[in-house]
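Session log. Operator J.P. requested a structure for one protein chain; no other inputs attached. Running the standard single-chain path with token output.
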Amino acid sequence: MFFELQLSSKVFGQIVRNRIRAIPLCIDQEFDFEGTRYVIDHVDIIDSITVSKQTVPTQITWIFSLQNYTFFTVPYLQVKQGVTVRLVKGSDLEQNGPKASQPSKEFTVFPVFNVSMQVVAAQAGKGGPVQIRYAFDHVEYGILDALIPPAYKERIEKILASHQLTPTTIDLSSLSGLLNRPVTAINAGITCNSEGDLIAMRIEISADADLMPDFFTLDPVSLLNGCDWALLVDARIFTEEASTKIKDGLKNVSKFRLRRGPSVSWDPSGPAINVNLGGEAVDACPFFVDDIDMDVDVKIRAVLSVPPNTKKLRTHYHFNPSASNIVEEVACAVTAALLWPFVGLVMFDRGQIDLPKYLIGVFVHPLIRFVALVFAIETQGLSDDISRDLGRNCKKQDDENYECEDDFDFSLAGLGGRLELNNIKGIPQGPILSGTIANLRDFDIGQITSVNIAAFKWQVTGQCKSGFFITNQASIFIGVEPPAALCSARIVDDPLNEFTLVTGDNEITIQPGFKPDYVQNPYPCRIRLVTTHGVRTITIPPPREQTIQETQDLETGRLRAIASCYRWEKHFTPREKIRWLIDPPSDTEQYLQLWQIDVSNLQPGDRIRVEDQAGKRILSALPSETGIAGLTLLFEGKDAPSELSLELDGIINENQEPRKMEIRQTLYAHRSSVPAPLNLQRLSFDKDGKRNLLVYSSLHEEHKLDVSAPTVPVLQGLIAESEHIVEETQVIHREQQIASSITQHEKTLELLRPRLGNILAIGNPRIGELKKTLYVGMEQGGTLFDLSNPENPRELQKYEGKPWFEDTALSDRLLARHAPEKGKIEIFEAIASRII
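Structure written below.
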């Protein structure tokens, strides 16, 4: 049994090109050529990509069959992508400073990647998940082959080989629930035709010799028929699996006893699925003395079609029940209406067998999951229970005929495209679904919007928490539209090691050391900036020593800054209004505001209240035992307040340390969405080297997505049995991640339940320096307790609404939120931050 997905080379090429463009290409290379110093400014992934088969086969493919486990050598599918390397003169970089320099030379080369599909982490005879892998093979230089020196070729190939595409994992797990058995890949392969205009991917889910060397060496039969994509579903998947599913589903139906069948067959002329079964309708004929059971035969025919201009998958079900015993039929005066309650409705009854949903799902479900990870499709998927969708998607025409229409409109995450169904037809192997991809756009690579330089000067720096200091420093701020980014910065030509450079997200700070040798012979500070969109050489004039007047003025400024931290000392019930200072993003209406407020040196009796601009209470907090209150608030988009009010209730003590406050505001922009599994158990971020991973688990499996380019998340791994997966289903929060419900606090919960009432959620969020906390969520809001003493939980914070940590996971720059009402996990990226 197998699936075969075919894509036009144009679509596949654009997908691969977008994958390559999502890689932050950061190159810090310079060299001499024909007596001139050149720097690689940046690399453009151009709209030129072709696919072909490898000329000399080198791909070793292992194939598992029922007889043996063997391998053969076949050609790789090869993708050749045009890459234009832009060179700038070193002298132009010096002259242009923060401005972009025009390339002086450019040349186009064509790196070639070997593409393969492999079953990974396979268990003997049980298969495993599938990965599409990309491996750099070589570079084709074309007419430049004789002009580029071998040493430069080696350097170019080393650079290109260092930016490998991460594998794409194809998720077949949803088929496990659909077919009611574990589904993994046994064998897998990818190839193209000799013309290079289509790509074919085939996955076997049972060892039936459907993937042999001919698939790789001969041209695949085209299924596209002018479409962008086509999917062939092996008819055996439903002819073999449906029989078992229907039989198991009817076992517990009290009004019907299965006696014959069921048998399921595929009719390509329909295209249609035919189901035949026989049994006994219990108490079908009411009599005065005793009810009579009736032997019946049931024939069901499901005809599949795509109505014109609808892009919907329509299934017409014809039910034909008849009495198999002529005596019973005459005695009972059988009619379709009489048999329907015993036979027809059994098929639709909630909790029994979901035949229409099963027959529809056998096409749509595999397509969602099989194509999803290739395209990064975001969709909520389909329900496993027909009764949830029957009223909305299906209509009854009469007792023997039903018709259902399922929407087929799947968006392509991060690419702006939409997968559309245009046609379905049957061939002996099974049904072929095919269609177009609308509005597929190229990956937006962003841009560098500005490079702003602040020269060396004496200034007061610091924060209330860490203190204020007089320093001399310069800074460079790089304005970016993501995914464009600052890659690196380094100081060049600093023989005395005078300067120290610190790089933040998009800001660079440089401080001089004022070494005696440098003070006697100062020189400018020269900095090389490397971004994904070009290189800059920044020259900042040398710093000067501090004057007496500056010393006095700066000390006054430092004392004034310290005094600004004491503002809450002036009144018994001081009130601070804090405005949101970061403008919302212009390219999306979906964004988040994160407020982080730390107040220290509080007394045990102090209480802080937070209200929005309308005076509505959001949060109230007491200090920890160390006198610190750490407040975090998260607001969505246009509903976010423009300012917050903080009110302090407390008692002034002349001998106490002044209360200090520090505020950080962070703006997050929406980047993408991925389908959320039912019964989400865990949601968190992880690191794999330099890659950012989003990890989430359901009751049955754990997914790992590479979200280093958050606009195009790519599945990296799928584990059927994870250490994080447990049987509990309540979603709560632990530290900075969503996790499974917590049972070790049962005694504490029993102490709290009388005063809190009905508890709907619990969690252990990390708050400030507290090591043990317990959050208890109710229907409206919730309360956070300090569990330093579990026998005496101490109320710490009270939320009037949903706290920031419910359904939310945080990393250094990424935020993920579970939106169960949408069936999605939304991924956000921090694009700006401000400390007040």
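Operator note: Residues 728 and 741 are 6 Å apart (CA to CA).
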